[in-house]
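Reading a protein record of the kind used here takes little practice once its layout is understood. Each number in the token line that follows is a code from a learned vocabulary of backbone shapes. One such record is shown here in full, so that the layout can be seen directly:
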Amino acid sequence: MASKSVSFKPQVYLPENEREGVDPVLKEGNLLTNVFNRLVRSCFYTAQKYYDSKIPEITISEEVRKESKEAVLTYERHMYNHEFHSITYVLDSYIRFMNKYWVNNMRTAETTDNDTLRKQVLADSLYGVRIGVLLLHPIAPTGCERIREYLSVDEKLWNWKYAFSVLNDLITDKDNHKLKFLEPREDFFEKHEKQLEA
């Protein structure tokens, strides 16, 4: 991996003859508007369908905790060293890991009607969303703030002192807590017009 940042040149704004290969700016945009949006929506719809929009009170699996801790610490190190270009690799890797974890395990839970597994995957994936929005907040604050609103948790979500806290630790009124209802096909990160052209 390169140790120096490169210039920020979204290819959609370059003349046709200067464009080369895949546009990394669109690629990162699609990570949010496609992959992360889908993961967040899936969590909310599953909680609504099976658990009355409540977050399962379950210990997060070791696999997800380990991956999450590594992502947070690597991200923090890159931020400290001003290696901002490396942060996109951390985010890409983590969000894709969580999406793959959801798809593979939820498919098994649904086809076998295994509610124990379904609950675990939902709890783990909501934790992944919680870590994802913490890391993405400086980059895409509007969408992340919207997710916080739908999670119905307080602003401690952005406080690095609570970086490894589960969502249930960030809820003021646990007895009455529910996720905000998410309508069908609702997005947290909107596609830029240039993403629609690509």
Q: What stands out?
A: The first helix runs from residue 24 to 51. The radius of gyration is 18 Å. Helices lie at 24-51, 62-80, 84-112, 115-136, 141-151, 193-197.
